[in-house]
Protein: Fic domain protein, PA0574 type
Amino acid sequence: MTWIWEQSNWPDFLYDEKKFTERNNEFLVNSERLMGKVEALPENHQKDAVVDLMLSEAIKTNAIEGESLDRESVRSSLLALMASGSVANSTDQKAVGAASLLVDVRKNWGSPLTHELLGKWQTMAVPEQRTSLIMRGHYRNDFSPMQIVSGAYGQYKVHYEAPPSSQVPEEMDKFLAWYNESRPLKNSGEMPEIVRAGIAHLWYEKIHPFDDGNGRVGRAIADHALSQYLGYPTTACLSTAIEIDEKKYYYELEQAGRYDLDINNWLNYFSDTINIAQDLAKDEVDFVLSKTRFYDQFADELNERQAKMVERIFQEGRKGFKGGISTRKYEQITKCPNRTASRDLAEMLEKGMLSELPGAGRSTRYELINLSRNAFGHRAG
Structure:
């Protein structure tokens, strides 16, 4: 099989930019509306919104790669990095690395991409590098093929083979030259910017320059490209949108350039996903708004146990607890007896802080009332 980089006209991708003009404009308009929503929040809650958006992205970009992160460790790392630029005394290097990558992409959105910056991002994406420490932040140099495979040992299916390591420096030189030359100030509207972001992500993934961390760095590049278009860090939750159907994501990446350099199908997928990402970001901002309004209305009426429970629910994000809030769950979190838990929950229900979930059977379950649009405090099983 001929891989995309083996084709004679690589990397002259073929696409119809007119197909993406409308979605490009939709992205711009929705981005401005979303930023307006964030800026309309009280100043002390604007940071909450940004942190929640970055938290979702950090968790999901790792989940796409099959890795789970501790939500609270990532959150505390994000807060520390945004406050002081460093994280002290953390033993969770994966959480620190994931947070560092998101913060650094936001910090450097206006900068050109360089070999050094990508190497820095790779060390953040894979802080516990499983290969030689010498290779951290450097392009791969192993002479064996870099292959994307699936299946049991001895029955591998090769989905893709990247260029040999000897070609990686030259391939990356070409990619970075194109990326920096096509940035919005020089592009002058010749290419829809979601097309540029989609090409950048695809091109980088086809080179697959590092031994590990390519997916996370590639999605960071897409965010970087979108931010350059907007003139400020994008709030779109791209990884969060991709993770909803990651099989589709990998399928579209694999199919792009499989037979020729026509990437219209990939760009269709990418453009649609970007706008889904904005809808998800809007939901995250609405969640922060709901949290703000909840505390404005009820903060003075919560006892210490109730306040602890509410804080714990909000830490779970907009989907809240799986199955809602039960008396038993309340007991476990607040360390109180059953009778006290029942009394506290009944009081919160009476004051309008909670609503009952339907179909709970013998064990009544609740969710916090949402003062924006949808109820939260639980997610479907």
